[in-house]
Amino acid sequence: xxxPLLLMRRPLRFACxxxxxxxxxxxxxxxxxVAVITVTDPWVRVAPNGKxxxxxxxIMSSEGGTIVRVDSDISTEVPLQRPGKQRAAVxxxxxxxxTHVKLxxxxxxxxxxxxSRTLKLGDRVALSLVIExxxxxxxxxxxxxxxRRRSAYDDHLLPHxxxxx
Length: 165
Known about the structure:
Elements (H helix, E strand, L loop, with lengths): L4 H22 L10 E10 L6 E9 L3 E8 L7 E2 L7 E2 L2 E3 L5 E3 L5 E4 L11 E9 L5 E10 L4 H6 L8
Parallel strand pairs: 1-10
Antiparallel strand pairs: 1-2, 2-7, 2-8, 3-6, 3-9, 4-5, 4-8, 9-10
């Protein structure tokens, strides 16, 4: 059976058009950088006096960047803290391209110095990370951190306790 040439070309033409459209949509426009920023395991630890807290998380930026500011619904200011046991503020936290940066106790971290309400385990704290890209553009990343005693990863490493009756 002979198939008309016009019918054979039509599916191929549509298939090529669809592939070209997918390539054009996936290609970034000139002058625009496409950075992927991932935030995992965000959590907040409240100080023993309950008046302040620190926030921790893992962050990775595909293109690199810098955390330049953090806003929160629970504290009017959120100073960026340098590594170490002492509270010492820094202006920014670097995010090298493709590198996981861990905000953790005794590492870079976020201070919530004056809590506007009492926090208990399981509460959620809204944070907005302002990240400046290598080209100077800024974007805000919304983070929802859980109030915990330690990170979920640390909880996973602890041995499970079972009660025997």
